[in-house]
Amino acid sequence: MDNSQVLKGVLDVAVLSVVSEQDVYGYEMVKRLRELGLADIAEASVYGTLRRLYNAGEMSSYLVASDGGPHRKYYSLTPQGFKSLKAGLADWASFVSAMDKVVAVARPKGA
Predict the structure, then answer these.
(1) Direct distance between the N- and C-terminal alpha carbons of the chain, in angstroms, rounded to an integer
(2) Architecture of domain 4-104
(3) Which residues of 68-94 are buried (b: 16+ CB within 10 A; e: fewer)?
């Protein structure tokens, strides 16, 4: 199953969820999502989502000096971001509940 289309629909919730746990910088977000099971997540998708959520006012950012390279841009949730996360989690729970009902009626052919 190609998860890319499903992932596009839930990437905002995934990113907001991770940032709600702790402030993160871009590549740390990519690593964390991969550790949590989204192994095929593209860096460009994550960076684009971070930028879009920041521009929408759902995240704020700040720079931290790095010992081994350029400054890192950390992201944190704004009050609007927490509201969006809460709404996104409710939408996700509703979707999962509906899909559980749909797949419960599925019967493999020949079974």
Answers:
(1) 21
(2) Orthogonal Bundle (1.10)
(3) eeeeeebbebbeebeebbeebeeeeee
21 to 14, 15, 82: CA distances (angstroms): 11, 10, 11
Residue among 61, 45, 59 at smallest CA distance from 9:
45
**Amino acid symbol at 99:** M
pLDDT digits (tens, 9 = 90+) for 27-51: 999 999 999 999 889 999 999 999 9
- pTM of the predicted protein model: 0.86
102, two tokens: 């749909």
Q: Please state the separation of Cα 54 from the chain's center in Å.
A: 13
